[in-house]
Write a structure and sequence with these properties.
This protein is an all-alpha fold. It is built from seven helices and no strands. The N and C termini lie far apart (90 Å). This is DUF2062 domain-containing protein.
Length: 185
């Protein structure tokens, strides 16, 4: 009875099935968007360098700890620079969202705290501002060390993948089937 009062469902079983149904639909939508963007990238006539550069730029924007604003930044860049592959930038945002970037942020924080070793910096009157300044300094320096190699790795990996797939498709189109027609008289 308390389940119906709080959620509107008859039983906990109904609530569980509703939750599982909605999360599976959400997963299907996300996979559909990823596949659709990947197909659009592969069907485009852009070079592998342009696709990899656009993906790396989207990864760079995703690496900034600005959840929500990264999508707006990508849209503004896509409107401003017509030569970028918009699908690659959107795909990088779908892959490198805030949740998948958390381990990278954590490593950046560890490296920054290793470099600065909790030095007592008193710049502000309030301890909260001093702690925020110390954390920001550690995070930014750690991010400046960790994020560029990560972006370069993404660039070369995406370039290699796109080149292999496009070469494979080009080789499949070149294959001419043998015919059994005899031309002898």
């Amino acid at each position: 009875m308390t389940v119906k009062k709080e959620t509107g469902f008859q039983s906990k079983r109904q609530l569980f099935h509703f939750y599982m149904f909605t999360t599976s639909k959400l997963k299907e939508k996300i996979w559909y968007k990823l596949r659709r963007n990947m197909v659009a990238i592969l069907k485009s006539h852009d070079s592998d360098r342009k696709v990899a550069y656009s993906f790396a730029l989207g990864t760079f924007i995703s690496a900034f700890p600005t959840p929500g604003f990264s999508g707006i930044i990508v849209v503004l860049l896509a409107i401003s620079f017509k030569k970028l592959n918009k699908f690659a930038m959107i795909l990088s945002l779908l892959i490198w969202n805030t949740f998948t970037m958390m381990p990278l942020y954590w490593i950046a924080g560890l490296i920054g705290s290793f470099i600065f070793k909790q030095s007592e910096t008193i710049l502000f009157k309030y301890a909260l501002l001093n702690n925020a300044f110390q954390f920001s300094k550690q995070f930014l320096i750690g991010g400046a060390i960790v994020i560029p190699p990560f972006i370069l790795l993404n660039y070369w990996l995406i370039r290699l993948i796109v080149r292999k797939i496009k070469d494979r498709k080009a080789n499949q189109l070149r294959v001419i089937p043998k015919t059994s027609v005899s031309w002898s008289c």
